[in-house]
Design a protein that fits this description.
41% helix, Rossmann fold, alpha/beta, 5 strands
């Protein structure tokens, strides 16, 4: 059913849940696996450039590389031949763009619970991942 899966990972607990559930699906479906490590920029306007082309301070760049390596190594330890990519900035835009460019038929993301106030503020005129993704989405809900 799913042949090309994009797993979204940011090193958070929710990202770990997405990694675990996505790996299970990829193994069951014998699917190609891509790991997209996403880090929100901290003030600077960073684009989806290769890691070496970014303008992050060394300590941030090392932390970003560690998160990506950690995810790819975790997947490879589970016999998945995963490819990794690191992007900075808006997760929704990068996920949709990456899924489209890789021809993915499933995107796996983690769910972060937010307060009512946070949900209220986020109901801006921005498009959601559901509206922008070119394929199915699996939302991994962690067991707290």
């Amino acid at each position: 059913m799913y042949r090309n899966i994009l797993l979204c990972y940011d090193g958070s607990e929710e990202g770990i849940n997405a990694l675990k559930e996505g790996a299970d699906v990829a193994l069951a479906m014998n699917a190609h696996t891509h790991l997209l490590a996403i880090l929100r920029s901290s003030g600077a306007d960073l684009s989806a450039e290769p890691l070496g082309a970014t303008h992050l301070p060394d300590e941030h760049q090392q932390a970003a590389m560690r998160i990506l390596r950690e995810g790819v190594e975790w997947l490879k330890a589970r016999n998945l031949d995963a490819q990794g990519q690191l992007v900075f900035g808006d997760p929704v835009g990068h996920i949709a763009t990456c899924a489209r460019s890789l021809g993915c038929d499933l995107v796996v993301v983690g769910h972060r619970h937010r307060s009512r106030l946070a949900r209220w503020w986020s109901e801006a005129e921005e498009e959601t991942l559901l509206e922008r993704a070119p394929c199915s989405i699996l939302v991994a809900l962690g067991k707290a």
